[in-house]
Hints:
CATH architecture: Alpha-Beta Barrel
Number of helices: 11
CATH superfamily: Divalent-metal-dependent TIM barrel enzymes
Order of helices and strands: EHEHHEHEHEHEHHEEEHEHH
Helix content: 40-55%
CATH class: Alpha Beta
Number of strands: 10
Largest sheet: 8 strands, parallel, barrel
Radius of gyration: 18 Å
Strand content: 5-15%
Number of domains: 1
Distance between the termini: 12 Å
Mean pLDDT: 97
Oligomer: single chain
Amino acid sequence: xxxxxxxxxxxxxxxxxxxxxxxxxxxxxxxxxxxxxxxxxxxxxxxxxxxxxxxxxxxxxxxxxxxxxxxxxxxxxxxxxxxxxxxxxxxxxxxxxxxxxxxxxxxxxxxxxxxxxxxxxxxxxxxxxxxxxxxxxxxxxxxxxxxxxxxxxxxxxxxxxxxxxxxxxxxxxxxxxxxxxxxxxxxxxxxxxxxxxxxxxxxxxxxxxxxxxxxxxxxxxxxxxxxxxxxxxxxxxxxxxxxxxxxxxxxxxxxxxxxxxxxxxxxx
Length: 268
């Protein structure tokens, strides 16, 4: 399978991190992303051992980047949790840890951005010392209780100021008017890419679909990323009722095969 394919542990919600790595290996993929929570449950040592045993590199984990800024500066507990997640990511060999930034701290979006940039700087350095890039993920405004960054364009206004990367999930950003231009101009900020489709008419989250079964122009987005010089992996991230109906392993296998064909055709 193409070496730039990654499969997310989120594709296998019923499996532990250790078992998810076995499932990814069974698909023939060489890379995986895992949630920090699943790594913590299994233990970093066991997860790292499974990674070596199955020959699957853990490229990315999730982590707690949503800092508590209610007092005007990052609270000690939220910083400690973030550092713990960074240590966990480094312990399993990940090179990127991504997360959500937390809700607005002000009615003004720019004030929220300023507060976050000022608070997250020490974590960026802490992660860099451990060989990690921290990345923020834009998500739907339905997650406003967890983040104030809801578009790739929003993330561009924050990430470079703080020394952060960006996790680009096509599911959340594909409708943006300037997506192609922003990818072309800011590809250097993109630390991780996630792919899934969405069936037109879906009205509730999660509503991800296997690529090719929905309306997201994924092939074009992948081509824009490659043309812009993005050199990282493309991570298959699937969940929701449509995926449950297909079957988690079958959906992951179908997606990985689709992506393998596409990357080969595009000469990646």
